Amino acid sequence: MTAWRRARRVALGVTVAAVAVGLAGLVVARREPAVGPAPAVPAPPSALPTGASRPVWLRPVPPAIVLPPSDAIDEAVRPWQAGNYAGAALWLEALAKEHRDIPLLQFYAGAAWLLARVPSDAVTALEAALDAAPDDRRGEVAWYLGLAHLELDQHAAARQAFGVACGHGVPDACRAVAWVDARPPER
Predict the structure, then answer these.
(1) 184: confidence class by pLDDT, cuts 50, 70, 90
(2) Which of 111, 118, 102 is nearest to 151 (CA)?
(3) Farthest CA pair distance, the chain
(4) 3-state secondary structure the chain
(5) What does the alpha-carbon distance between residue 84 and residue 93 come to, in Å, rounded to a whole number?
(6) Which end is more exposed in the chain, N or C (fewer Cβ atoms within 10 Å of the end residue's Cβ)?
């Protein structure tokens, strides 16, 4: 690692710490006396977060990133680490086109699209990743593909993907198959 990159990482860490301390100082909890109970107004279905009717264990969480070290990959992962999953997905897709020898780039691009709530792009990327994934990672790729299909209410495709994940020993994948089977059939 060059001295410049080390200095940049230290500066970034110091900046993040300073911002966190500054924001913590701005947070002031103040309770106003309640005038009366707030009326219960149900949120419209469009305001509910995607997957709100699903159990917590069937909602996407960021996978651990395990990729070979390189400056280009570090640059692509930086938005991911900041929570900008759509930005990371764009970077990772571009890298996947350049580095077809690293098939997991496509998987991480698909997972990033899923986390950015763009499930149609996630399905495209994850299907490509499943075809190229090494056998020891196929279950993980299939799990995220199943989650993307659930976001699109494609239960049959989700069940198929979860079945692959279950066959590869992914925790909760067999449970997900049963959960999807218990859902009403697609319209």
Answers:
(1) confident
(2) 118
(3) 64
(4) CCHHHHHHHHHHHHHHHHHHHHHHHHCCCCCCCCCCCCCCCCCCHHHCCCCCCCCHHHCCCCCCCCCCCCHHHHHHHHHHHCCCHHHHHHHHHHHHHHCCCCCHHHHHHHHHHHHCCCHHHHHHHHHHHHHHCCHHHHHHHHHHHHHHHHHCCCHHHHHHHHHHHHHCCCCCHHHHHHHHHCCCCCC
(5) 14
(6) C
The arithmetic mean of pLDDT across residues 25-47, rounded, is 38
111-141 pLDDT tens trace = 999 999 999 999 999 999 999 999 999 999 9
Query: Which CATH topology does 68-187 take?
Result: 1.25.40
Question: Which tokens in the block code for residue 134?
Answer: 């090494």
- Compute how many other C-beta atoms are within 10 angstroms of the C-beta atom of residue 25: 8
pTM of the full structure: 0.71
